[in-house]
Amino acid sequence: DAKTTQPNSMESNEEEPVHLPCNHSTISGTDYIHWYRQLPSQGPEYVIHGLTSNVNNRMASLAIAEDRKSSTLILHRATLRDAAVYYCILTDTDKLIFGTGTRLQVFP
Amino acid sequence: EAGVTQFPSHSVIEKGQTVTLRCDPISGHDNLYWYRRVMGKEIKFLLHFVKESKQDESGMPNNRFLAERTGGTYSTLKVQPAELEDSGVYFCASSPRWSLVDTEAFFGQGTRLTVV
User: Fold this and answer.
1) Nearest CB neighbour to B108, from listed A43, A49, A92
2) I need a labelling partner for A55 at 20 to 30 A (CA). Which of A11, A18, A71, B14 fits?
3) What burial letters (b/e) apply to A91-101, b meaning 16+ CB within 10 Å?
């Protein structure tokens, strides 16, 4: 069901930037790209979303390819608290369809 | 402002028993969703309430699951009778809008259900 492809895991050192990739080659014109993350023992938490243009908020940046077939979530300075599973989700309705996500490990 | 609250945080029941999970959404959020993750699988959509009405229940696995939202405030998800394969984490989420395309869903911390 999931229409996105992400690496299973990534690693980063604290205070370094992290680029989490997502492929969504079958994206439709009405699909928005959402990112959620799930910290240990927590529910999913919204991170950012966009349609065509790059987006920035206090948590992260979202870079969307011109053809919209891929996107990258950018954490500018990873902290230990950013260790989580990151989900890239396409939605054009009331449902979020979660894939397996990318497990990000952050090392001190 | 209080977030989405779920009760209980953990529940252990025997196969064949009944369990009721509760979700209190963020005040003012008409849209309430249930999701679950069973062992080894991805988080899956179960259903969506708009106020007290079931907007979409396409993800409900079978008729042992009953969701209600009387009065359009809190919601309950009852599993009767529980089976071993129902074990997992049940998440509730709420949102002020019907569509999630241009807004966020706020999730609770989940209820971990273990059926033994």
Assistant:
1) A43
2) A11
3) beebbbbbbbb
Please answer whether residues B114 and B11 qualify as being in contact, where contact means their C-beta atoms are separated by less than 8 angstroms: yes
Share of chain A above pLDDT 70, in %: 98
| Distance set, CA A68 to CA A11, A26, A53, A64, B65 (Å) | 25, 9, 9, 6, 38
Of A91, A94, A97, nearest to B56 by CB-CB distance is A94
All residues of chain A having their beta carbon less than 8 Å from the beta carbon of residue B99 are 93-94
Whether A1 shows a pLDDT value over 70: the answer reads no
Confidence of residue A2 (pLDDT cuts 50, 70, 90): low
List the single residue in B with minimal CA-CA distance to A99: B42
CA gap B103, B35 in Å, rounded: 18
Amino acid of residue B75? S
